[in-house]
Request: fold
Amino acid sequence: MSEDAHRPIRLVMFGRQGAGKGTQSATLAERYAAPHISTGDMLREAVAAGTPVGIEAKSWMESGRLLSDDLMLRVVDERLASADVEKGGFILDGFPRTIPQAEALLEIAPVDLAIDLEVPEDVVLERLSARRVCSSCGNVTNAELAEASGGRCALCGGELEQRRDDTPEAISERLAAYNDQTVPTIRWFEQKGLLVTVDGLGPPAEVTARLVAAIEAVVAG
Ligand code: ADP
Reply:
């Protein structure tokens, strides 16, 4: 497939915390010229900017609990109404996470494909505790590389830090929410015939190649 002329793609990305979903979503967004819509990033921006949504979201996010479906729908509904979504579709990263969110999404927009980026829980636990994020550009790296670069981002020189919800307590809360609420949501997409599962282990470029193959078999093939 050529990388320029294609119709908008509408993808939902699932994956445990630390599966590499954010990194892969950003890569796919560039490849398919589709907006990368990360609800986690949008909410962290709202918290940093002190908007009403951010004020409401802050303590829930820090403790690793899910925000209410109502609040999430307000956030996502508005984002999906933008012109770039109309033109390029979307790669949704972090939404939907509950069955009511999934039902609401399909009322707003059709979805071509949902992908479950599968990484076992013991692997994500290790990745999350070592995760470091650039406070300026959001680039994600790990503790070992952060130490080697003196705590500075390799891309922009910004300060690398640990996410406030990458604490052992919040990690276990987030994984529990994933198992209790998001795994049934994934099964919901599966029952609709919209799901593919992709192995998320291995070097990022290999995972990307698997994702592209899975997408093109269904959507753009
Ligand atoms: P992670 O998937 O690693 O837990 P995200 O960056 O995707 O982190 O999201 C961070 C936090 O934002 C979540 O723990 C939750 O509090 C909130 N959040 C993001 N998306 C949703 C959603 N769809 N429903 C409810 N809460 C959400």
